């Protein structure tokens, strides 16, 4: 779980200020603990090998400590690469990735309010950020706004099976939200369509990380900034009795001497509209240029 951005208030939503504080606090230790995030980033960026694209401007949305930004600058050395993140601490760590001949810009901003011009970006890459957008529509609308016609948006996010063992175990302890309910692949697809991003394609991959005990899992989640930021969460520290109950509830999942933690990763891509449907001045009728009906090859 990584990378952060805007959240709308609501009982089932996230506290965006808590998300930002968590990732600011985790910035110094993040890279050492972000094993899954590194693997997903590698797989996400490898998908660009199959896309013919020579971008002039690349946006790393939810850049974290800047590893993807540096990799994108290495892949597209002539492009302007922008590392954008909500957490100042993460961008401070990202400065370490800036090379003398591989420089990229660092921008602290909300992904739901991008400080970029309309149709100014050729490629938007986002690694494990959208799960912190609640709902994702505002961010996707901004992605669509800044993408040039024919520009590419490619991302990885976390699906609802993520940390299902931890969620089930907590449900046996109390009825408070302890684990965020991540966005389903089909809901993400619907959101991409609502944002009028073209030709969305999504697929899913599952990972299982293992731990000796529950406390090791929770320490790792804290180290990567993935603390409980749900609206309605308990504002106090978790007591010893609750932790003991959690350990007991998680124990039935143990296999081969270790406790599993499932992660569902949703990969997706979509394109900036080349020909936007145009409404007539009188309303009600929409004109779609014939060229827009061609299949992308």
Number of domains: 1
What CATH architecture do you see? Answer: 3-Layer(aba) Sandwich
Q: Tell me the quaternary state.
A: single chain
Radius of gyration computed on alpha carbons = 20 Å
Overall outline: globular
Strand segment tally: 9
What is the mean predicted local confidence, pLDDT?
85
The helix/strand series, from N terminus to C terminus, equals HHHEHEHEEHEHHEHHEEE
Which regions are unreliable across 5 or more consecutive residues at pLDDT < 50?
1-12, 278-297
Give me the CATH fold name: Rossmann fold
Biggest sheet record: 7 strands, mixed
Q: Count helical runs.
A: 10
Could you name the CATH homologous superfamily? Vaccinia Virus protein VP39
**What is the percent of helical residues?**
25-40%
Structural class: alpha/beta
Kindly report the spatial arrangement of strands forming the biggest sheet: 3-2-1-4-5-7-6
């Amino acid at each position: 779980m990584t990378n952060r951005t805007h959240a709308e208030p609501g009982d089932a939503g996230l506290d965006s200020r808590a998300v930002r504080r968590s990732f600011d606090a985790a910035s110094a230790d993040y890279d050492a603990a972000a094993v899954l995030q590194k693997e997903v980033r590698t797989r996400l960026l490898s998908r660009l090998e199959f896309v013919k694209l020579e971008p002039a401007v690349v946006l790393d949305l939810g850049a974290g400590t800047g590893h993807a930004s540096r990799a994108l600058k290495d892949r597209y050395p002539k492009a302007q690469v922008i590392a954008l993140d909500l957490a100042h601490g993460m961008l401070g760590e990202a400065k370490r990735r800036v090379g003398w001949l591989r420089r990229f810009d660092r921008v602290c901003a909300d992904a739901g309010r991008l400080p970029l011009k309309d149709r100014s970006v050729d490629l938007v890459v986002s690694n494990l950020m959208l799960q912190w957008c609640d709902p994702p529509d505002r961010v996707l609308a901004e992605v669509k706004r800044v993408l040039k016609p024919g520009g590419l948006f490619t991302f990885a996010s976390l699906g609802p099976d993520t940390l299902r063992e931890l969620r089930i175990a907590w449900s046996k302890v109390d009825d408070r939200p302890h684990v965020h309910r991540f966005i389903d692949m089909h809901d993400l697809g619907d959101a991409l369509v609502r944002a009028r991003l073209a030709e969305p394609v999504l697929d899913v991959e599952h990972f299982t990380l293992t731990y000796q005990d529950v406390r090791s899992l929770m320490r790792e989640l804290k180290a990567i900034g993935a603390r409980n930021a749900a609206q309605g969460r308990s504002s106090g520290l978790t007591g010893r009795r609750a932790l003991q109950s959690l350990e007991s509830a998680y124990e039935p999942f143990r296999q081969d001497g270790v406790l599993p933690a499932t992660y569902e990763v949703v990969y997706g891509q979509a394109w900036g509209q080349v020909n936007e449907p145009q409404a007539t001045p009188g309303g009600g009728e929409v004109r779609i240029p014939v060229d827009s009906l061609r299949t992308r090859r």
